[in-house]
Amino acid sequence: MTIFHQIAYNVKSFNLGDGETFGIKATITSDAATIYYYFLFDPLASEK
Predict the structure, then answer these.
(1) Domain of life of the organism in this record (predicted)?
(2) Which residue in 40, 25, 34 sits closest to 4, CA to CA?
């Protein structure tokens, strides 16, 4: 798990069910935005 994975996961955890809030935070870096979609469509991440 890279640092970007960890940051994105933490942000997603604190903003679960709030796409707008997370989307704003994801704009900090393009990497975070990419990981956002990664978690959004990754079935394993959904079960965590």
Answers:
(1) Eukaryota
(2) 34
Rg (CA), the chain: 10
Domain that holds residue 12: 3-47
Q: Look at residues 1, 5, 2 and name the one whose alpha carbon lies nearest to residue 39.
A: 5
Q: Mean pLDDT for each consecutive 10-residue tract of the chain (48 residues)? A: 54 51 47 56 51
Q: Rounded to whole angstroms, how far apart are CA atoms 6 and 9?
A: 5
- The number of distinct structural domains making up the chain is 1
Amino acid at position 11, single letter: V
pTM of the model: 0.17
